[in-house]
Amino acid sequence: MPSSDLTFALAVIGATTGGVSAITTVVTAVRDRPRVSTNVVLTTRLSGKPIVAIDVTNDGRRPTTVRKVGLYAHRASYEVFHDGESEPYGTGTGEITFTDGPVFLEAGKTVRVTMMPDIDTYGVHVDFPLRVFAVDIRGQRLWGDALPIMRMLFGDDPPLLADEPADFRALFEPPRPDLLPAQVEPSWKLWKRRELRKPSAWQRDAKPARRHRRPTL
Questions:
Q1: What is the pLDDT at residue 26?
Q2: Which end of the chain is more exposed for a tag (fewer CB within 10 A), N or C?
Q3: Distance CA 216, CA 197 (A)
């Protein structure tokens, strides 16, 4: 075989094997990438406050770190005051979240994170559907289900004291079954779940039965 033909043949073989190697690398990376899932656990006790816990699981084949895990309420406006002054010196907007982390996860392992959302600090009604979320190692926010978690914990007859402040009682009374979770994805992202893009698509009645299911994010 002439040297030119041999060179061409080797080039073709190299290009072919190189392409196969690249494809194999991509397939392996996709197969082995960390896959994080969450599950909300609600517990009540005979004494003490009820507990919200989030089970965070690495369903992938490699260890990973979840930067943050928690519950998302909504964005809200806020004002900043100097001590003793009645007029704010600054305003802004921010997210109302209840979070913990970071959490390191070996492949196939689950870590339980407990929390008690202090809804009174932010004025979040007990019926507001809080959405589970996690932030993965790449900084991507992964959304789970939305649930009226605090109402599910305290029930329809919460143990309020007679001398509770009016603004605190207003977080429990009256019931607000009309509340919907916040929109967390733009409406144009059609590949995202519809209820993430359109809160009116969220089904309140279906949620309590699904609260122990672990949604894949």
A1: 41
A2: N
A3: 18
Q: Is the dihedral of CA 89, 93, 96, 99 positive or negative?
A: negative
Q: Which amino acid is residue 33, in one-letter code?
A: R
Instruction: Indicate the pairing of strand 51-58 with strand 103-105.
Output: unpaired
Give 216's pLDDT tier (boundaries 50, 70, 90): very low
Is pTM beyond 0.85? Reply is no
First to last CA, the chain: 56
**Residue 53 backbone class (left: φ over 0; alpha: ψ -120 to 50; beta: rest):** beta
Q: Domains of the chain: which residue ranges?
A: 34-210
Q: Can you name the residues that pair with 77 across neighbouring β-strands? A: 93
Backbone angles phi, psi at 166, to 5 degrees: -60, -40
Query: Which of 152, 145, 96 minimizes the C-alpha distance to 123?
Result: 96
Buried b (16+ CB within 10 A) or exposed e, 86-124: eeeeeeeeeebbbbebebebeeeeebebeeebebeeeeb
3-state helix, strand, coil in the chain (%, to 5): 25, 30, 45
Query: What mean pLDDT do residues 204-209 have?
Result: 51
Structure tokens at 38: 């969450």
pLDDT 10s digits, 5-21: 666 665 666 666 665 45
CA–CA distance, 119 with 93 (Å, rounded to integer): 17
For the record, the structure tokens of 26 come out as: 């991509």
How far apart CA 123 and CA 176 sit, in angstroms, is 14
